[in-house]
Amino acid sequence: MDRLCHVEASIPRKPPNYGGVKRKRGDDELNWRKKKSIFYELPYWANIELKHNLDVMHIEKNVCDNLLGTLLGDPHKSKDTDNDRRDLETLGIRQELYIYKDGKKLMKPTAEYTFLEANRRNYCRFVKSIKFLNGIASNFSKNVAANDSQILGLKSHDYHVIMQRLLSVGCLSLVNKTISSTIIELCTFFKQLCARTVNVTDMVEAHNQLVIILCKLERIFLPAFFNIMIHLVLHLPEEAILGRHVYMQWIYPFERYLKKLKDYVRNAAKPEGSISKGYVVDEALTFCSRYFDDVETRFNRPNRNDDGIQPTRQLSVFESQCKPLGKQSRMDLDINVRNIAEFYILNNSPELKAYLNEHKQEMYLRRFLNLNEVHRKEFAAWFF
Question: How far apart, in whole angstroms, are the C-alpha atoms of residue 233 and residue 150?
Answer without folding.
Answer: 26
